[in-house]
Specification:
The chain is α/β, with parallel strands linked by helices. The chain is built from 7 helices and 7 strands, in the order H-H-E-E-H-E-H-E-H-E-H-E-E-H. The chain has one domain: Glycerol-3-phosphate (1)-acyltransferase, CATH 3.40.1130. The protein has a 7-stranded mixed sheet with strand order 1-7-6-2-5-3-4, with helices on both faces. The longest helix has 26 residues. The two termini are 29 Å apart. 38% of the residues are buried.
Length: 239
């Protein structure tokens, strides 16, 4: 029963925050701080409604690093809460084009300046990633990417796609890994205290001097660091 109530309340809360986000984005379309502002609002009461304890670690590692490609794991639809609470200023999110069809959220996602990519069309996907590179260089924005490309739904850290790493090399900006402890299928939303999520920032990985041929190595280096940290956090939380 509590889980149902929470889903209703969180749905209403998301709709209200996204409506506000749409209005703000209409007033200052595609402003690089729209995402940061609304993401912070999501986390403000979102964790309270869900009964989730949220802990952030090593926040200082990503302070004042300038434009970067943030890489995080992708578990389920609740990612917007730990992810939103972790987004830095002047950061936009890379998402699949079908997001725009989601009521409230999709419209805000597009209006706020996030980047939509059509993964089913390789030519359009490549053009989108070229746009990402240009925006990082010209506007000095950061881009948040979930390189698994799909929700893991409790299957651990899935293999990465290399687009984010090719982009970071082309833009000559660092990779900033951030990993969330496993919570898909771990949270019990029927309990007043449904569980805990840990967010850990990892040291940045520089890309200066790298070429496109280095992307697979960079991808594996990033994934290995994230997987090691994920394993440690999960062992701490679940034994």
């Amino acid at each position: 029963m509590l889980k149902i109530v929470r889903f209703i309340l969180i749905g209403i809360y998301i709709a209200c925050v996204m409506t506000l986000g749409i209005l703000i984005s209409l007033a200052r379309p595609r402003h690089p701080n729209n995402v940061y502002l609304i993401s912070r609002m999501l986390g403000w009461k979102g964790f309270l409604i869900l009964g989730v304890e949220f802990e952030q670690r090593n926040h200082h590692l990503h302070d004042e690093i300038g434009a970067a490609v943030y890489c995080s794991n992708h578990q389920n639809d609740l990612d917007m809460f730990p992810g939103g609470a972790s987004v830095h200023k002047r950061t936009v999110v890379l998402g699949k084009s079908s997001i725009i069809l989601i009521p409230f959220f999709g419209q805000f996602f597009w209006l706020s300046g996030n980047i939509l990519i059509n993964r089913k069309n390789s030519h359009k996907a490549r053009k989108s990633m070229e746009q990402v590179t240009r925006r990082i260089k010209e506007e000095q924005i950061s881009v948040w990417v979930m390189p698994e490309g799909t929700r893991s739904k409790g299957r651990g850290l899935l293999p990465f796609k290399k687009g984010a790493f090719v982009t970071a090399i082309a833009a000559e900006c660092p990779i900033a890994p951030i990993i969330f402890s496993s919570y898909s299928k771990k949270l019990d939303l029927n309990k007043w205290r449904s569980g805990k999520i840990i967010s850990t920032r990892l040291p940045i990985i520089e890309t200066k001097g790298m070429t496109k041929e280095d992307a697979p190595k960079l991808m594996e280096q990033t994934r290995e660091a994230m997987l090691k940290c994920l394993t440690e956090m999960d062992n701490e939380l679940y034994g």
